[in-house]
Amino acid sequence: SGYWAHPIDLSRVRNDYRLVAGNKVTGFTINGPLKGFPLVVERNGDGWTLSIDGIARYPANEAYVAGFIAELARRRRLVSASGIGDYRYGTDGDGSCIVMVHTERGDVTLSFGQSNADERYRYVSLGGETVYRTDNGLAPWLDNRTSRWIDPYPYRKRIAVTSVQGVTAYGSEGYRAVSDTVAMKAFEYGLANLPCRDISNIPPYPDVYLHVECGDASVIRLSFTRLDGGTVLLHEMDSGKSWVTGYSDYESLLRTLSER
Description:
alpha+beta, 10-stranded antiparallel β-sheet, 7-stranded antiparallel β-sheet, 5 helices, 17 strands, 16% helix
């Protein structure tokens, strides 16, 4: 692209620049080019949560969050775009991606605009009038689709620190209470490894309810609603959180309660 062929004025270059200090990040908000709900990620103890409504907070994909923070903290080269050409940078308007990073020292606002034709570079504003050109390493994370950011196994951590003592299933065919040790181990494994594709705000109209009694005296109350396209809505009744999982994975989980 001719946009990147202009000679570089070294007086307009910021070498070895870090957008944020990675170990200082406490959270961030992404208003992506898809707009819609802003995606809010917050530190929660040793982990991270994700929210789109400020109420329900879902476990976030910690590896994905860590990769984003590492890329923000990576040292990079910024070149002032002033005078490069008379064209839109895209750092504001519908095509921009606004990232507000919360740190222990305050907030940092980054506005990402267009990339070049081969997507090697991207424009960014650091909150002022100057627009810079930098590499496009952050591209995979400039996306506020929740499917990219959620923990795909939301019950894995919970099951790792407790055990399942009993499960009661309610549905159109009545109810079934199971406490067999072998069945509970199979159910634990199935719930911990139940893959979720996304979160959802679809109202639940449950086909099946599960009352899960845990070894730490806590209870997990779940409902499952069959949806179109081979998917099922998993709803956590006490927190109001909902995920989308596959029908075959749902069937496998329920089978652990009936094959003993």
